[in-house]
Amino acid sequence: MRDRRTGEFVGPIIPIKPADNFYHLPRLNQRVWRYMEYWKFEHLVKHEALYFRRSDRLEDDMEGKYAEANRTYTTSVWQRFIQAYPIKHDPAAQEEGALGFRYRIFLSCWHINDTENADMWRLYTKTAESVVVVSTVRKLLTAMERYQVVPGRVRYAPQSTPRPEWNYYAPFFFKDSRFMSEREFRLIGSPPDDQPVHIETMTGFNLSVTPETIIDLVKLHPNSMPSFKDQVKAFLAGNKIKLAVSKSALSPITLHDPADKAYTPK
């Protein structure tokens, strides 16, 4: 533990073993995919902005929360920590703190894969006029260097697995096993500590990016028409953006019914 004023250690150092660390990055040249409706792509390009959604506004109600197991079990790192320092283990207080922290955490979520995925098209797009932008972990990290952004790969585990208690960011790098197909890489951003978050109005924020530096290529929905490709290329040309655009090579897929409750876009 460090003194916030001096930065000096004021107690024993608690070692964190590699197996205990929740923070993991994919390889830097790993492709990552962001499936989106066309209007979101327009916003990214026109405003040169990567959007981050407030964590409590995402569809997973457990986003950023501790697991059910945290109410009765503790991780080995936390056990060593509370043995070394005069800190009372209070699961209820931890849960309350995590709930409050969710309002200050904003996420940009990407799918890890070497190729496009039909299930991701079904889950995160509603119409044939949709796109997926393809980037790499390295390009996103480079674009985020000037910001206070925490990147990492999501780990999937059941509610019977306690989330690390020693860092408030940890629950945001865990999701329930039922979301395993998402294979998510995420960027976590927060406003400055002295900037208030107005819960009713600040549901997200943008960070400035140069589209050409983070996007390798743009793929169009498998069901898209040739006219949509012309529309996308004309839009990019109008904004003086040079990006490779091609239609998905996948077979046409069944579009989601807006009334389908299984549809859970981000």
Task: Record the SSE blueprint.
Elements: E1 31-37, H1 38-46, E2 49-54, H2 76-84, H3 91-101, E3 106-112, H4 118-124, E4 130-136, H5 137-143, E5 149-153, E6 155-156, E7 174-175, E8 184-189, E9 204-208, H6 211-214, E10 217-220, H7 226-238, E11 244-247
Parallel strand pairs: 6-7, 10-11
Antiparallel strand pairs: 1-3, 1-4, 2-3, 2-9, 3-8, 4-10, 5-8
First and last CA, distance: 36 Å
Helix content percent band: 10-25%
- Helix tally equals 7
Would you identify the regions where 5 or more consecutive residues have pLDDT less than 50? Answer: 261-265
Return the structural class.
alpha+beta
Radius of gyration: 20 Å
Shape descriptor = elongated
| Extended strand count | 11
Structural domain count: 1
Please report which band the strand proportion falls in: under 5%, 5-15%, 15-25%, 25-35%, 35-45% or over 45%.
15-25%
Instruction: Please state the average pLDDT score.
Output: 90
The helix/strand order is: EHEHHEHEHEEEEEHEHE
Reported for the largest beta sheet, the result is: 9 strands, mixed
Structure, briefly:
Helix content is 23%, strand content 21%.
Provide structural commentary.
The chain is of the alpha+beta class. The chain has one domain (21-247). It is 23% helix and 21% strand. It contains 7 helices and 11 strands. The strands form 2 sheets. Strands 1, 2, 3, 4, 5, 8, 9, 10 and 11 form a 9-stranded mixed β-sheet that branches. The protein has a two-stranded parallel sheet with strand order 6-7. The longest helix is centred in the last third of the chain and has 13 residues, at 226-238.
